[in-house]
Write a structure and sequence with these properties.
Layout: H1 3-8, E1 31-34, H2 43-53, E2 57-60, H3 71-83, E3 87-96, H4 99-112, E4 116-121, H5 126-136, E5 139-143, H6 155-162, E6 169-174, H7 175-180, H8 185-191, E7 196-201, E8 203-204, E9 213-214, H9 223-232, E10 239-241, H10 251-268
Parallel strand pairs: 1-2, 1-10, 2-3, 3-4, 4-5, 5-6, 6-7, 7-10
Antiparallel strand pairs: 8-9
Length: 269
């Protein structure tokens, strides 16, 4: 039986007669949410769901705080997150198709008060983006979007374009999209470990372009091997759930995904 399967099984017999006391272990990998998870919910509902699920790290998206927001608007939203005990650790995903869009993304990150953008800059903007990273100290984690994405279908297309750039330019590895693009996310974690800044955690039904979003643990991704790889490279970023199934009624699926992923983390140790 796999470790993850063992997590899901109830204890047999009378638990009061067990000869040992289970100890709660601290998770070795902090869990967060990718903001797109809450695309169908307003800010207050999103905060309520995060608190209910006890996942309090977030990469905020522009539907909760517009890219052209004022500092006062940003402060209002950030105050709500802080009051709820939520740590906003990044902004994005943000698409950048012009220098103005790059400028806007970095100004947005400054207003929010984070040191990382999860973004998708066009190839011709990478030099300009790198200069903004150098000027501001804000890291750029480029996100892969699967076989439909002409720019960055897999993590390799990101890495080959940032490997010789400023070390603050890196990768947000979306393991679901990588899998659909024919890339083993476990191998990607090991191969691109020096530039791995952020993780988007999801599961998919197939290792093919037609793979659909599904609850974590029900699909084709091996999460035990993934967690082992993240531990081996001593990953220090967030592993953020990006739940994309049943997005207007997603709480149960989100809870299942988080519970499974936490269980794997605790079993792998």
């Amino acid at each position: 039986m796999s470790m993850a399967a063992a997590v899901a099984l109830p204890l047999a017999g009378n638990a009061t007669n067990m000869p040992f006391k289970a100890e709660k272990k601290e998770a070795s990998l902090p869990i967060g949410f990718a903001g797109y998870t809450f695309a169908k919910y307003d800010l207050d509902k999103s905060i309520e769901m995060m608190k209910r699920l006890n996942v309090l790290n977030l990469s905020v998206k522009d539907f909760h705080l517009p890219l052209n927001s004022t500092q006062a608007q940003a402060n209002t939203v950030m105050d709500k997150f802080k009051a709820a005990g939520i740590n906003v650790y990044a902004v994005g995903v943000i698409y950048m198709k012009s220098q103005e869009a790059v400028d806007q993304a970095f100004e947005y990150a400054k207003r929010v008060g984070v040191n990382m953008i999860v973004g998708v800059p066009n190839y011709e903007l990478l030099d300009y983006t790198e200069q903004k990273v150098k000027d501001t100290g804000i890291r750029m984690a480029i996100h892969n979007h699967g076989p439909e994405d002409k720019l960055y279908p897999g993590p390799g297309q990101v890495y080959e374009r940032i490997a010789n750039r400023d070390i603050r330019m890196g990768l947000c590895l979306d393991i679901g999209h990588a899998t659909r693009a024919g890339v083993d996310p476990v191998k990607a974690v090991k191969q691109y470990k020096d530039r791995l800044f952020d993780m988007h955690i999801k599961d998919v039904s197939l290792k093919a372009q037609d793979g659909k979003a599904i609850e974590v643990g029900r699909g084709v991704i091996d999460f035990e091997e993934l967690v082992e790889a993240l531990n081996k490279i001593k990953f220090t970023g967030f592993s953020s759930i990006e739940y994309e199934k049943d997005m207007t009624d997603s709480l149960a699926g989100m809870a299942e995904s988080i519970g499974y992923f936490r269980g794997v983390i605790n079993c792998v140790g």
